[in-house]
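INTERNAL AUDIT FORM
Audit reference: QA-55
Scope: verify that the stored structure record matches its stored sequence.
Auditor: D.O.
Record contents follow.
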Amino acid sequence: MRRSIATALCCMITAVDAHAGATSLSIDEQGARHGQALSAAKICPGARTTAKVAALAASVREPDRKTFNASSQKIVVAWDKAFICQDVDPAQFPREINACRKSKILSCSQTWSEIGPGGSALPGLLEFAPQD
């Protein structure tokens, strides 16, 4: 019982934190950051979304939901389209780093600085969780 109360309280605090950080951003920007987090979790090595991503989506009011979802989806589609390329690790092949890998590195680095733990736009949407 105590654990479920603590878990519920933690989730409520996360939702309040996500909403408080997002209130200064437009609905379009909130949706874009949501999509950015979802995409980075798929593309960037070690990136994982936090509970703030779900809390951000849950905090959007019904009249704004369509705009939020459209902005999020637009970013997801853009990342999927941009990174359909083949990433070649220069450590495995005796050649220079390819354009796809460079783009991923730059995009992931920028995303980390914007929505990572100390992000400048909407901090805490991503965390680093290396895969074993």
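Auditor finding: record pair retrieved intact. The two ends are 33 Å apart (CA to CA).
Action required: none
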